[in-house]
Amino acid sequence: MSQPAIPSQKLGFIGLGIMGAPMAAHLASAGHQLFVHTRGKVAQLIADSTAVRCDNALDVARRADVVFVMVPDTPDVQAVLFGPAGVAEGLSPGKVVVDMSSISPIATKEFAARIRALGCDYLDAPVSGGEVGAKNATLSIMVGGEPAVFERVRPLFELMGKNITLVGANGDGQTAKVANQIIVALNIEAVSEALLFAARAGADPARVRQALMGGFASSKILEVHGERMVKRTFDPGFRIELHQKDLNLALASARALGVSLPNTATAQELFNACAAHGGRAWDHSAMVRALEKLANFEIGQTPPAQA
């Protein structure tokens, strides 16, 4: 067992899904006392750890000094924090709530104010890097909150991620995550179009991808999701329905700000088309399937003879 980065602390973790389970496991394996709660089945790596399972979020908050939350959407965070037997009921002054979910920046500011009114501190700390980043503790973590609180929690963030940035005040971490999801979606769309074009033109899409990896068009999306598109491996690392949720946040916030995000809207419509074909649980790299439907051609097929 590795030594803890700081003296052992009492930590809580609520939400043990694809991302949350490995993130929580890193905290437990570092020697911290971990109290957990989740709606579904507890992942084996958590069951095999020293983590203590609690009946509800209230019990987690009562027993832990720092409570991490990693659930799917804004209503889920609200329910975990302020619903019956929620975190707020178990807090006492001086504790810290860290929401690592990806949710509304506007709602985040409200949640933070309500937690601070209880004499506690709040950080919004959404992450990027997907299941692979969660398992390898290489997540990018975008944080909103007070600098002193950030510094208190930073050693714990360092057990889960590598690129850890205090962006600004509460809500700014979520704003950075929305910006991240815009960039990721548009890059997936660009890689999808490029590889579909190459395949339909008769070139080997795998070799085209390899050639592009050495130039200015290279990106993490081309590297990871381009390979998924070529190999047709769309088991979720990050589900389309979750990216739809994030782009809904982007588009709703943009409307409130009077900002036009035309290509973000296009990417969302492509995700919507995938969902209409039963793909809400596909990996978000499967956006390419919507473009393939429009082209009546799939990457990997032999193109028809040119006239």
Brief description of this entry?
This protein is α/β, with parallel strands linked by helices and 307 residues long. It is built from 14 helices and 9 strands.
Fill in the keyword field for this structure.
3-stranded mixed beta sheet, alpha/beta, 6-stranded parallel beta sheet, disordered N terminus
Structure description:
This protein is of the alpha/beta class and 307 residues long. It has helices spanning 20-29, 44-47, 57-63, 74-82, 87-90, 105-116, 130-136, 147-157, 172-200, 205-212, 220-231, 240-257, 262-276, 287-295; strands at residues 10-14, 33-37, 52-53, 66-69, 96-99, 121-124, 127-128, 139-144, 161-168. The termini are far apart.
The 3D shape can be described as elongated
Portion in beta strands: 5-15%
Average pLDDT over all residues: 95
- The first-to-last residue Cα distance is 65 Å
Major beta sheet, specifics? 6 strands, parallel
In terms of structural class, how would the helical and strand content be classed? alpha/beta
Q: Over the alpha carbons, how many angstroms does the gyration radius reach?
A: 21 Å
Strand elements, count? 9
Strand order of the largest sheet: 3-2-1-4-5-6
Pattern of helices and strands:
EHEHEHEHHEHEEHEHEHHHHHH
Poorly predicted parts = 1-5
Count of discrete alpha- or pi-helical segments spanning 4 or more residues: 14
Helix content: 40-55%
